[in-house]
Amino acid sequence: MRIARFSHQEGIKYGIVDETDLVVLSGDPMFAGFEPTGERVPLADAALLAPVIPRSKVVCVGRNYADHAAELGNELPAEPMLFFKPNTAVIGPGDAIVRPKQTSLTSFEGELAVVIGRIAKNVPAESAMDYVFGYTIANDITARDLQKTDGQWARAKGFDTFCPLGPAIETEFSFDGARITTTVNGEVKQDGPISDMIFSVAEIIEYASAAFTLLPGDVVLTGTPAGVGPFEAGDIIDVEITGLGRLRNIARDA
């Protein structure tokens, strides 16, 4: 089942994607359950939004692909390397990635994103997938120059618009053969299998939930394959993941 968050006639709703239509739902699927309302909205008449705006946090994993760690000259971590993005960084498909004046080197990082569906604390890997609501696509935008000069990643990863998500949440995603592909203006920059992740989704949830509680609607970014690189104002950045569709954003300067 693919669930989208969208705006239509000045209202924001959730809906199940059914070919060319959205089956409108009542309630918030991640917090209060949902039921179809009987209303259908043509996809062509709806504006897709970020499929979730986390009320709590976005948890990210750094260096979770060996080839990406190698391209930046970094050693492989012995445990998942965690950092946060604020929920104010989240934007949706079609929204502009704003390059702030504080940086001159912004980079794209296509990633698989996990949406948490239940309160998770000290969850063992064996049952971790029971806490997953679904999956979507993310672009972990990074001010690469500030990442180096600041000595930590909060500002470099956390500017407004630095966490595009979308286009929808897939509740039955298959990892088999899935790939992450990122293009800039149609040119392929990243193309790697999700199976190359060092730490699995279950291992990440176990590790993260041992440190802090994961709440429904929280998003977990699982790392990026090799090929990350800079982008400029006016560039069109597409991230595609097999079975999840395409997340497209256009960059502009502040």
UniProtKB/TrEMBL annotation:
Annotated EC:
3.7.-.-
The Fumarylacetoacetase-like C-terminal domain sits at: 57-249
The organism sits in which domain of life? Bacteria
Looking at its record, which EC class is this enzyme? hydrolase
- Which segment of the chain is annotated as a signal peptide? none
The Rv2993c-like N-terminal domain extends over 1-51
**Record keywords:** Hydrolase, Metal-binding
**By its UniProt entry, which PANTHER family does this protein fall under?**
ACYLPYRUVASE (PTHR11820), ACYLPYRUVASE FAHD1, MITOCHONDRIAL (PTHR11820:SF7)
Specify the protein name. Answer: Fumarylacetoacetate hydrolase family protein
